[in-house]
Amino acid sequence: MTDVPTPSSRRLIIPALGGLYSGLHDLAETILRVVAGLALVTHGASKIVNPFGAVEMVEGLGFYPGAFWSPLLSATEFFGGILIAIGLLTRPASFAAMIVLLVTVWFHWITVGQGYSGAEKSILWAAIFLFFAIRGGNRHSVDARIGKEF
After folding, report:
1. What is the rounded CA–CA span in Å between residue 11 and residue 50?
2. Is cis: bond before 5, omega within 30 of 0?
3. 1 pLDDT band (50/70/90 cuts)?
4. Contacts for 39 with CB less than 8 Å, ≥ 6 apart
5. Domain ranges of the chain
6. How many angstroms separate the first and last alpha carbons of the chain?
7. pLDDT per residue over 88-138, tens digit each?
8. Residues 6 or more apart from 2 whose CB is under 8 A from it?
9. Which of 63, 68, 90, 141 has the most CB atoms around its CB within 10 Å?
């Protein structure tokens, strides 16, 4: 097993930046989590006011019954986004968001036939949510404040 170098132990071209990078590490991660969560909330806001509005769309993707999956999609995007943004139940909310995004990758790449260019944003968003599903919310999260994580 090899040791993974920490940011402070890596050989930087400009060593004086090591303190800056270390100091901003958690803040940058928190900003990414909050922005990703709020973007998901924004995307789910129109769905949450009409949770059954996507019934035909989800059934068109092969998810039956649509009356079950449409509200689940709405809740995952809207409430899951809020949970991710504040860092509460970060891992399960991020995992659920990642699954939603992987479905959109399939939709754009395979169903619609747009390939990578159509699925690119969904791939990036799925990767972001995978990161938080594995990493959790960090010290700037409700999970950390209550001292419990999933």
Report:
1. 53
2. no
3. very low
4. 81, 125
5. 44-144
6. 27
7. 999 999 999 999 999 999 999 998 899 999 999 999 999 999 999 999 999
8. none
9. 90
pTM, whole model, 2 decimals? 0.88
Dihedral sign of CA atoms 112, 113, 116, 117 in order: negative
> Using CA atoms, how far apart are residues 140 and 31, in angstroms rounded to an integer?
10
Task: Please spell the DSSP secondary structure of 55-121, one letter per residue.
Answer: HHHHHHTT-S-HHHHHHHHHHHHHHHHHHHHHTSSHHHHHHHHHHHHHHHHHIIIIIS--HHHHHHH
- Burial environment of residue 118 by CB neighbours within 10 A (0 to 12, 13 to 18, 19 or more): middle
Other beta carbons within 10 angstroms of residue 3's beta carbon come to 6
Residue 134 has phi, psi (to 5 degrees) of -85, -45
126 touches 101 (CB < 8 A): yes
Q: Give CA–CA dist 123/15, Å, rounded.
A: 34
Contacts of 20 (CB under 8 A, 6+ apart): none
